[in-house]
Amino acid sequence: MRLLWRLAGFAVVFGLLISPLLLLDNALAQFAMGAILLTILLSLWGRWVEHRKLADYGLSADASMAVDLCIGVALAGGAVAIIFLLTRSLGFAGSAEYDPAPLLTTGFWLFFVKALLVGYWEEVFFRGYLFVNIRDSAAASFRPIQGKMIAVLITSLLFGLAHVGNSSFSWAALAILTFNGAVFCVPMLVTGRLGLSIGMHAAWNFSQSKVFGFAMSGNPSTSSMLRAEMTGPAFWTGGNYGPEAGLAGIIGLLFLLIAVYGAAVRRL
């Protein structure tokens, strides 16, 4: 019960802090200010309520964070590339067309910044704050490894449920997003840092939507570098929801799981 009250208190305080941001008429500014407020709140909450440092939640302002971030971007971009190549080789991508024009637009790069901010928000909350608290609480009643697995399961399921309001959401999307959340937990399990997770999260979303032309979490792609009409069966493509609701997404995540575990071990 103490854990639930602490988590609820953090969520309420954060909600009150960011509610004025709804008055801003710029989504990028909302996400940027929200990321700053989340970091400040986590720092103060950790010090005064939970007696933790930001590093205990996986955050650090050093070179290792930047390196982890870049590696995460490369790994997730490669995973989505594998999804596209498999989809194309099976004849499920129609006649794909390459257009470099989006690279020259401001909107293309602003979307990447937005993807980074969204990745930061969600990773700090789910794989940072929630994971650490549930892990430590569960470890008090179970063995440490069991506490970690319980934290992975709960935070990953909550991550999947957080997308329930997205267009074309389905049970398949919930299952694959839960698996997605578990993959994003790997860096915290192995290194105790969030840089890899944030980079993977950002590139996973950005590559689907702006590079390879997939729908991303129910949001159709616009102005992507590759344009392809997904003609394959929904069990593979995920239909209107995108790869996160299809077998292609599972294969991409399996590749990402192996790759990020290897990268995390090397980054110890």
In terms of per-residue confidence, which ranges show pLDDT below 50 for 5 or more consecutive residues? none
What number is the mean pLDDT? 95
Structural class: mainly alpha
Helix and strand string, N-terminal first? HHHEHHHHEHH
Beta-strand residue fraction:
under 5%
Shape: globular
Largest sheet: 2 strands, antiparallel
Please give the share of residues in helix.
Answer: 55-70%
Number of strands: 2
Q: In whole angstroms, how far apart are the ends?
A: 34 Å
Spatially, the strands of the biggest sheet line up as: 1-2
Q: In DSSP terms, counting alpha (H) and pi (I) runs of 4 or more, how many helices?
A: 9
The gyration radius over C-alpha positions equals: 19 Å
SSE arrangement:
Layout: H1 2-18, H2 27-50, H3 63-89, E1 97-98, H4 106-139, H5 144-161, H6 171-190, H7 195-211, E2 226-227, H8 234-237, H9 247-266
Antiparallel strand pairs: 1-2
Helix pairs in contact: 1-2, 2-4, 3-7, 3-9, 4-5, 4-6, 4-7, 5-6, 6-7, 6-9
